[in-house]
Design brief:
4-stranded antiparallel beta sheet; 145 residues; mainly beta; single chain
Length: 145
C-alpha cells in the first residue's frame, strides 16, 4: 500500500449507480470524462430514473459530498464528508464499498445542501487515484487503497 498525503490545504454514489449499466462502459477517469468535454460515447442509457426505475443499486454515503465519480473498470472513486473528516471512497460497480481513506479534516460548506470541502472530484490513470479536497490535502492511492 502506497499513500502520499501532502498538506496543501448519498448523492454522488447514487448518480454513479444510475450512470453505470450491467455491461462495462468506457472509463471515466476524471470530472467531465476522458475527453474533458462531459460527453459519453455510451448509447442506450436511461433518460430518466427514479424510485424503482432504472436504478441498479444504492449506496448510503457517510456524509455530504458532491464530487463526480472517477470510474475505471469495475471501480468508482468519489469523495465525501464523514463527520468532520474528508474521505476518498472506492466502490465496486456492484455497489459495494471496497475501501475508505481519510484525506483531511474540514467542515467548510460552500452552499448549504450543495457544496462542501468534499466536493472536488478525484481522478485516476487506471493504477492510481488522486484526490484534492477543500482542506488543501492532496492524496494519491493505488487501487487497493
Amino acid at each position: 500500500m502506497r499513500r502520499l498525503l501532502l498538506p496543501l490545504s448519498l448523492l454522488a454514489a447514487c448518480c454513479a449507480a444510475l450512470c453505470l449499466g450491467a455491461a462495462r462502459a468506457d472509463n471515466w477517469p476524471q470530472w467531465r470524462g476522458p475527453n474533458y468535454d462531459g460527453v459519453s460515447k455510451e448509447t442506450n442509457v436511461p433518460a430518466e430514473w427514479g424510485e424503482g426505475k432504472n436504478v441498479l443499486w444504492k449506496l448510503k454515503m457517510p456524509g455530504v459530498g458532491s464530487s463526480t465519480p472517477a470510474v475505471w473498470g469495475d471501480r468508482m472513486f468519489l469523495t465525501s464528508a464523514d463527520g468532520k473528516d474528508l474521505v476518498l471512497l472506492c466502490v465496486s460497480t456492484a455497489g459495494k464499498e471496497l475501501w475508505r481513506a481519510k484525506l483531511g479534516t474540514s467542515d467548510k460548506t460552500a452552499k448549504p445542501d450543495e457544496g462542501n470541502a468534499a466536493s472536488p472530484s478525484p481522478s485516476t490513470d487506471g493504477k492510481h487515484v488522486w484526490a484534492f479536497v477543500g482542506s488543501g490535502d492532496l492524496a494519491c492511492y493505488d487501487f487497493e487503497g
